[in-house]
Amino acid sequence: MIEDFVAFDFETASGKNPCSLGMVEYKNGKKSREFYELINPEVAYFNPFAIQIHGITYEDVQHERNFSELWDAMLPFIEGKTLVAHNAKFDNAVLLYSLQRYGIDVPRYASFCTLQRARRLVALPSYKLSSLANFFEVPQLRHHNALEDAFVCGELFLKLNRVEEELKLQEEHGMDFPSDYLDWIAEKQGQNVQIRRKALAGCSQLLSGLRFVISGNFQHFSRIEMQKIIVQNGGRITGSVSGLTNYLVCGSQAGNSKLSKAKLNGTKLISENQLLEILIDF
After folding, report:
1. Does a structural domain hold residue 182?
2. Burial of 90: CB neighbours in 10 Å, binned 0-12, 13-18, 19+
3. Residue 250 and residue 160 share a domain
């Protein structure tokens, strides 16, 4: 379970131009320090819709420091850290754009997304940060304040960690292994939690008649576990791509030869998360 990480959130003036940043660092699952600054994005245009959301105007930040001037203070929260954000694709894009804009070297860090993780672990009508905060009973006073949203994101990450750990226990000790926490979640939803253990249950023939090839490394499962999931749900695993292959399941560092053969044969490419979403009926 990841307990040392930094939750972060950007608010933007327009596009990828940040006007504020909040970061909350966690050590051993507890909040240890925080960072918050308004940022001069050095652009004149502030999207009116963005202003309506976060309330930050050009006048609020015109005399603040820009991203480059704040970088030395930001770096200890980023370099070598595990960064967590809600819709991390956006916040990472803002970070990388700003680094590139000011000619700053990209630091080394790992990235997790609470939005994607929540979609994988629980079935809810909405995955907005405010909706998830309400569902998991995380107090939130000022939504769209970057520091407040970073804190909520961090607390949500810890909640999702617990869900995943409880699921692992059930996978190890049997599907009927008691979990008051998962029962609480299921009761709040008014239905059984649709989570990845459903994909492991082997009660589906959803993949019956389909041939799969697996390539690369996966975030949530080992290759053996991925093979097991496919076979238990009716699919067939083969070692090489051919004209009979229906899907190539691609992880990171997928083999170039398999990708080339898949393209040549018209084999569909599918990611780990896409496969899980099919099996979990999202």
Report:
1. no
2. middle
3. no
pTM exceeds 0.90 for this model: no
Per-residue pLDDT reduced to its tens digit, 6-56: 999 999 999 999 999 999 999 999 999 999 999 999 999 999 889 989 999
d(CA 57, CA 229): 50
Query: 52 is written with which tokens?
Result: 């309506």
Residues 6 or more apart whose Cβ sits within 8 Å of residue 41: 12, 13, 14, 17, 18, 19, 61, 66, 67
Same domain, yes or no: 140 and 17: yes
CA–CA separation, 125 and 131 (whole Å): 9
- Please give the Cα distance from 126 to 148 (Å, whole number): 20
d(CA 143, CA 149): 6
Specify the number of domains making up the chain: 2
Residue 59: CB atoms within 10 A of its CB come to 8
